[in-house]
Amino acid sequence: MYNKTPPNDAESRDAARVAPRPQTLAATGLPAAFLGDLIEKHLFEGGVLSMRELVSRTALSGRLLEELIGFLRQEGRIEIRAQHGDNQGLGYALTERGRGSAMASLMASGYVGPTPVPLDYYNQVVLTQSVRGRSVTRERMFAAFDDTVLDPALLDRLGPALNSGKAIFVYGAPGTGKTYITQRLARLFEDTCLIPHAVAIGDTVIRVFDPSVHRQAQDNSPVVMLTRGHDPRYVLCQRPLVITGGELTADMLEVQFDPATRQYRAPLQVKANGGMLILDDLGRQRIPPTTVLNRWILPMEEGVDYLSMNTGQHFRTPFDVILVFSTNLQPHELVDDAFLRRIGYKIGFHALNPQQYHLIWQRACEARSVPYDAAICQFMIDTLYAPSGTPLLPCHPRDLIGMALDRSLYLEDRIDLSTQALQWAWDNYFVTTPGSTGDAGAELRRSQ
Predict the structure, then answer these.
(1) With contact defined as beta carbons under 8 Å apart, do 149 and 354 qualify?
(2) Of the candidates 65, 106, 288, 426, which lies 20 to 30 Å from 275 by C-alpha distance?
(3) CA atoms within 13 A of residue 185's CA, in its CB half-sphere
(4) Which residues lie within the region annotated Disordered (predicted)?
(5) Is the pLDDT higher at 424 or at 187?
(6) Residue 86: per-residue pLDDT
(7) Is the pLDDT of residue 375 over 90?
């Protein structure tokens, strides 16, 4: 779960402009019957609820709820009840007829949450706040990575790639920093966007907002400022960063239906709309990489994703993401040239040079509160790396220093680095082949 960060006034005003609060039932874009069914489901789940509680649950204003409740009372589906305990005052509850109607609604759709937004409303909001309308300058790029040891030429390739709006394919050996760097690219998109709690396609509701993915930018309480601010059916969030790796399955790229709860959940790319979607460790999934890549050929080219539900109903949404593929394998081992041509940028991550390795070693020492000794770092390069032909990778200093300090703690030695401790760490860090004598010449690098 992420910490909430407050939006600035300009972002709040922009959100209200993009998705203003509905002042009438017609402005919600949803039929009154649909809204009435949703209120009934909330009362079925919550029992006797006050107007304030209904506002919080449904993300509708009190004025709109009063109109809907009046309609439901006329039909004999809702009655007024006196509340007890902490909630003194009047509340609303279902009548016997209302309970039957609510149960029928729940059988049709198990969704009970904030009022959804219609699909066409959602599509318009996504396009209005498109991530592809944001540009990255060289100054911002270098500022975002000023605490990271990177080849400037690599940043000068990633920056234009982000501005292109096209998919990015990053590749390189394990440990070259692909995952770390690509995840940090999201910090270049510092503004906010609106994520709906749910989207309605006809009578079907699909959950979109996911607290494990979306970083909320404010307390999105619909009780406050009932006539001002953005439509509380949306949550004002930092631009999404969705990461998936070896756990990815084909169904995660489609609308998912849970028959037990009778609820739909949005696929990963819809949750990522307005932000970045990173497919990490491509080629290690339980499905062939061609299946994943072919699934996104049309969305990448057209900027539109075509989805369907288990009922067979089809619909489309914007495909508004910065899509990043990351792999430890050679690109030609995964896909053919025809597909690679469809991806705008192919960016290789490579080993460090000695100067960069020294800088990372120094920062790793500072992080573990041990003195940095350039001679010891050079010993690693000259005595261990060079003879074995092992590349200088950015993950090594942190790991080797950590293992050397683990040994010092075990031996109750002074917490310090020594060539002996680092040699021991080296011998335990790499997997040796049968018959090797311990140097890294015939070693296989540890899988990472």
Answers:
(1) no
(2) 288
(3) 32
(4) 1-22
(5) 424
(6) 63
(7) yes
* pLDDT above 90: residue 320: yes
Six token digits for residue 219: 């307390």
Which is more confident, 256 or 342?
256
pLDDT at 310: 87
As a whole number of Å, the CA-based R_g of the chain is 27
- The helix (run of H) or strand (run of E) holding residue 98 is helix 96-108
Phi/psi at 242 (5° precision): -110, 125
Task: Determine the Cα angle at 355 with ends 352 and 357, to 5°.
Answer: 50
- Whether 332 and 361 map to the same domain: the answer is no
Q: How many domains does the chain have?
A: 3
12 in a structural domain: no
CA of residue 286 relative to chain centroid, distance:
21
- Name which residue leads in pLDDT, 135 or 243: 243
Rounded to 5°, the CA angle 425-393-166 comes to 145
Closest alpha carbon to 259 in 298, 303, 311, 198: 311
Contacts of 186 (CB under 8 A, 6+ apart): 239, 241, 275, 276
Whether 329 shows a pLDDT value over 50: the answer reads yes
Whether 26 maps to a domain, the answer reads no
Which residue has better confidence, 59 or 443?
Answer: 59
* pLDDT for the residue numbered 227: 53
Kindly state whether residues 232 and 128 are assigned to the same domain. yes
Same domain, 333 and 195: yes
Is residue 416 situated within a structural domain?
yes
For residue 296, what are the domain limits?
124-132+148-349
Residue 188 and residue 202 in one domain: yes
Using the 3D structure, point to which of 332, 349, 366 is the last residue of a domain.
349
* Same-domain check for residues 397 and 331: no
Q: Examine residue 10 and state whether it is found in any structural domain, yes or no.
A: no
Please state, rounded to an integer, the average pLDDT across all residues of the chain: 87
Average pLDDT over residues 65-70: 95
Report the run of H or E that residue 5 belongs to, with start and end: none
Long-range contacts of 150-153 (CB under 8 A, 24+ apart): 150/177, 150/181, 151/350, 151/356
Strands 168-172 and 345-349 come out as parallel
Which helix (H) or strand (E) is 149 found in, with range? none
* Residues 199, 173 share a domain: yes
